[in-house]
Amino acid sequence: MAGDVWHWQLEAMHVVSRVRSDLRARIAHPSVSSSSTEDARDGLLLVFEELASNALRHGGGDVRALVVASPAGWLLDLSDEAPERPPVPAVDRDPSLGGMGLHLVAQLSVDYGWERRPGRKHVWSRLPSGLEPIEGFSDQVPAPRAPEAPRD
Prior knowledge:
The chain is of the alpha+beta class. Helix content is 33%, strand content 25%. It has helices at 13-28, 30-33, 38-59, 101-108; strands spanning 5-10, 63-70, 73-80, 111-117, 120-128. It comes from Geodermatophilus maliterrae.
């Protein structure tokens, strides 16, 4: 399954759980499960759910999910029709009030970011397979960035 590209339309919040189940089934396939750890697969599902729900809650319009599988892990891209609304992590908020999803994405991702394209915002994450050494694993809190701003 390495090299596979999977994509879904997310019309509403209730669709997220169905798509998450489909993604879980795809990554349970022996060709994926034998080349990744259970923790890595769980991380992919968790980041998918966080980014998908954010895209539906804070973006809207035509929400699309894309996963690209590779031997090193996965590229996850969620896009919506609100390029003027960048992802903004919660700051100084009691975690019990929610809004900590972007912090979680940062902790589980090898790399992450967002960009504007004509009429769309893309929020993406590269997630490890769990079997290969990780370079530059992020423990940083994501900061809002303009598309032209340099990465740290």
